[in-house]
Design brief:
3 helices; Glucose Permease (Domain IIA)
Length: 219
Amino acid sequence: MRFAREAAPFVAPLAVVALALAAAGWRRSALVAGLATVAVLLFFRIPRRSPDADPSAVLAPANGVVTRIETVREPRLGGEPYRRVVTFLSVFDVHVQRSPVAAKVVECAYTAGRKVAAFRKDAGEVNESHWTVLEDEHGRRIAVQQIAGLLARRVVSYCRAGRSFERGELIGLIKFGSRVDLYVPADYRLAVEPGARLVEGRTVVARPPDDRGPMIEAR
């Protein structure tokens, strides 16, 4: 298992404190500081993932639970109807995000904002967030919105316009979790429903209309 480089500013001070306490002979305090160091480090873990074999399937960009699926019209995606799959990340979930498809980044935009609780319906509109709009080889656009929450301090993106990503490749992280929205065209066939637990870079969330793989009816 690897860890994101963004862990260093958080983990290093705790590790120094733990070592200093141990050197001073304060074993219990050193143990507490050591456990805190490990706990924070785990927030930045990058597990190995094996994407679904179907190259056209849209993978989960985030690890967590689907809390809502709705049809929206997003100006960044041309105003056409899209299905938005909202995933909530708890403090125990993996906090890195991965590209749901093999595609090129056509838009990459950071939006400053508040840090209200991620389960609020308006969190995507008022909180700090980062948009990544991807276009695959067929010209179909899919978007990922990383959204900060009450405990999340910063959204980090590895994207830039013109860069290409493979399915399951890392595209960023949210420091200490929160919420990630996936946008797929409304004619895509959904393979998840509210309450489903997703594994980033592995779980199939949707399929193009011409892909006859397993699916469920969208609500």
